[in-house]
Amino acid sequence: MPAHATRIGEEAVALLSAPECPATTTNLILEGSQLALQIHESVGHAIELDRILGWEAAYAGTSFLELPQLGKMRYGSELMNITADATLPGALGTFGYDDEGTPAQRVDIVREGTWVGVLSGRDSAAIAGLPPGGMVRGDGYNRLPMVRMTNVGLLPGDSSLDAMIADTDDGIYMATNRSWSIDDKRLNFQFGCQIAWEIKNGKPGRMLRNPTYTGITPQFWGSLDRVGHEAEWVFWGTPNCGKGQPGQVGHTGHPASPARFANVRVGVKG
């Protein structure tokens, strides 16, 4: 943290007089921690099998996914490879066994853009005719264990943040989450970030404040056209994911590197 203090202080001061993010459609590059939250909200919750089955409708909605589409539906571009891996060393969603005694495991969720897996427990998996995924956890002795995310992350690609910027004639680079909103089916979303920079002719330009972007989950992920390589892959996570009634808090991991999306609406207010 001390190594970043000077830069963050200078950016905070510069943001006070920076121009607002313009409302337009452009190429969007997301920094890794913001992409991690994007994964959490538009993939992680949507693939929870209890939501898909309609069991978790009261507190935070259901899901736009339907079981007959499993193995067929296009979730994103061919660069989209998502896994739920409870075995990653040191990640927030890592454990040995879930609360039903199922060993931790890695499950493919999206393979080359196609939806192929879910987050499940023994009961939900049996109804769907699937093997149990070992993703059931409770946050205390007096709470019913339920399907929770493990480490749901986007596998690295072969690009880098510098290469993405250099390969972008016109775009915006956004970093560090400020706000988020997504509908009950995990379909229509809007995110706000703390800071952004314009990209012109492959180079970062002026700083922008109050940057936002919006999209529809499958279309947004379908526009994914660059993914950062393994050297930029970080085990980000959410330590306070809420779910259930009474509410439970869960630790979820979201490995991600920077990524670029084409033709995204940005600067939308309200």
Word description of this protein:
The chain is of the alpha+beta class and 270 residues long. The protein contains seven helices and 15 strands. It has a five-stranded mixed beta barrel. Strands 4-3-2-7 form a four-stranded antiparallel sheet. A two-stranded antiparallel sheet has the order 5-6. A hairpin with a 4-residue loop joins strand 13 (234-243) and strand 14 (248-256). The protein is globular, with a radius of gyration of 19 Å.
Shape type:
globular
What's the total helix number?
7
Largest sheet, strands/sense/barrel: 5 strands, mixed, barrel
Averaged pLDDT: 96
Radius of gyration: 19 Å
Helix content class:
10-25%
Distance between the termini: 33 Å
In short:
This protein has 270 residues and is α+β, with helices and mostly antiparallel strands.
Helices, strands, pairings?
Elements: H1 2-15, E1 24-30, H2 32-44, H3 49-52, H4 57-60, E2 82-85, E3 106-111, E4 114-115, H5 122-128, E5 136-137, E6 146-147, E7 152-154, H6 161-166, E8 170-182, E9 188-200, E10 203-208, E11 212-216, H7 217-222, E12 224-227, E13 234-243, E14 248-256, E15 259-266
Provide keyphrases for this structure.
270 residues; alpha+beta; 5-stranded mixed barrel; 4-stranded antiparallel beta sheet; 7 helices; 15 strands; 20% helix; globular
